[in-house]
Amino acid sequence: MFLDGKLSTSSLRVICPDCGASLSSCKLTPEPTGGLVGRCVQCNVTIPDLAITLRYYCGSALLDSSTIISGSVSKDLQKRGFFAGYTLLVHPLVAMETDNPGGKKELGLLGDFAAMDRITLRRIDDSNGNSANHDQAIIQAARKQDAILVTRDKGMYGNAVGQGVFCLTFKLEPSPGGALDTLATRS
User: Fold this and answer.
1) Which tens digit of pLDDT belongs to each residue from 114-154?
2) Which of 6, 5, 7, 46 is nearest to 23 (CA)?
3) Counting C-beta atoms within 10 Å of the first and last residue's C-beta, which end of the chain has fewer, N or C?
4) Digit-coded pLDDT (tens) for 89-121
5) Chain centroid to CA 110
């Protein structure tokens, strides 16, 4: 977990208490009571205290535009608060992608939660990390900031995990009635 004497998310692993898998990513699914719960990507079992564990070891999460636009984080903070206490980072490319009515609304809600000290919201400077590939720029920023990458984008998720960046992603979960959950992923 430490790189040159510093905690590094590139070596961060979570051990599933059920199947024993060493995880470099976890999926987030909605709870019946609202809010989000972390699960093993291998066996789908809930990982107890995942939010507080990741907050203790890392504390910062870089949000992808798909996560902001979907409202997943603001909905979570209105309910139980998996992301409560985190420092949420916004990359300049993500800020540009969310420069629309829906994105501005969600950033405004995150700003409200920051004003209430539920989270810290920080826009990062990525002047040295310009990349022709959008996803690669976000992934490299997460690595540079030593932050967990939070995305609903399956391609970005796969690329980030492949590059050793710890990720949280969202998965579809069927509801009791068979319909897909309202936190549907965006491909």
Assistant:
1) 999 999 999 998 766 556 688 999 999 999 999 999 999 99
2) 46
3) C
4) 999 999 999 999 999 999 999 999 999 999 999
5) 14
Asked if residue 80 lies in contact with residue 35, where contact means CB atoms within 8 angstroms, the answer is yes
Taking residues 1-14, what's their average pLDDT? 71
Q: How far apart are CA 39 and CA 69, in angstroms?
A: 22
Domains of the chain by residue range: 2-170
Q: Which two tokens mark 179?
A: 């319909």
What is the 8-class DSSP label of residue 160? H
Neighbours of 53 (CB within 10 A): 14
CA angle 40, 45, 46 (to 5 degrees): 85
Tokens of residue 7, six digits: 């905690």
Sequence-separated (6 or more) residues with CB below 8 Å from residue 96:
none
* CATH class of the domain comprising 2-170: alpha beta
Stated length of the chain: 187
Reported as type and span, the H/E element at residue 113 is helix 101-115
